[in-house]
Amino acid sequence: xxxxxxxxxxxxxxxxxxxxxxxxxxxxxxxxxxxxxxxxxxxxxxxxxxxxxxxxxxxxxxxxxxxxxxxxxxxxxxxxxxxxxxxxxxxxxxxxxxxxxxxxxxxxxxxxxxxxxxxxxxxxxxxxxxxxxxxxxxxxxxxxxxxxxxxxxxxxxxxxxxxxxxxxxxxxxxxxxxxxxxxxxxxxxxxxxxxxxxxxxxxxxxxxxxxxxxxxxxxxxxxxxxxxxxxxxxxxxxxxxxxxxxxxxxxxxxxxxxxxxxxxxxxxxxxxxxxxxxxxxxxxxxxxxxxxxxxxxxxxxxxxxxxxxxxxxxxxxxxxxxxxxxxxxxxxxxxxxxxxxxxxxxxxxxxxxxxxxxxxxxxxxxxxxxxxxxx
Length: 375
Hints:
- The chain has 375 residues and is α/β, with parallel strands linked by helices.
- The chain is 44% helix and 11% strand.
- The chain folds into three domains: 12-96 and 110-115 and 122-219, 3-Layer(aba) Sandwich (Rossmann fold), CATH 3.40.50.620; 227-282, no CATH class; 285-374, no CATH class.
- It has a seven-stranded mixed sheet with strand order 6-3-2-1-7-9-8, covered by helices on one side. The chain has a two-stranded antiparallel sheet with strand order 4-5.
- It is globular, with a radius of gyration of 22 Å.
- Mean pLDDT is 89; it is low at 1-9 and 170-182.
């Protein structure tokens, strides 16, 4: 029997409340993974409701400080940390973050020792933060284990981290939530050993943006991060988080518009980003992709050696290209070489990134149909 989409007989708020109560019924330890964004704010207040219903005391909250955060986000997280109903663990762990400039990818270590010595931390580490040193690690290298491994240390029994992931935000997030028939919103973190008793719970996966803000403002009359108001006033991107990775940096001008002093500090630490700000509007992405694609697999190799900087990213890119090549041999029209280069240049190069065919109504799909008709 094929799966069919079915709709619940309750609104998304009541469904989310039922899900989060189920999480607290199922797991020994429950923590909210908080980013300072609107979605994690919503799940924080959902958890607050359960704690008040059951007399559980302060909500356990985990904040992963990515160093390159906007001042508005940091201020909001500091405010939340000081709520008497919040028990927050603030982590400043060393791991790789991407700096993407005009197609070139390179990695820097967040809270890295080398940049600290050079005076190039974007901001000072907050006092009382949990660091790699607490786990016997220095900050000169990427963490040997996934971040979640460290953040669940000291937690008792089976553990759930509640996240604000919503399916509407990306196809990747949607696909991650339709793989299971039952309890599809409870999953094991990717890349973490199955022996580690940790699950992610995503109780608001079916909410939209209006649901989120309505719940925060109307149900709780609660504050949210000031950045959203700055973004609304300037027509800027509404995502909090590091602004220098492949997707966010394409709108680096939004940082100038919303928090110009923050941009100035990013520029002091990473001067190359000003090339992205200045030249991206006139940068011919399609020509670059076509120039490398016309040389076939030699062009793919040349692109990786020129545009992917750093051993770990290079290994990841080569592995993705090798898997893509197998599919290209079997079905060259669904897996064209220019689509591979587009992925290597513009998409996130996450661990275990899956190889998929060209999607409908994309540039690659239009070219695919043109080539099929010519045959």
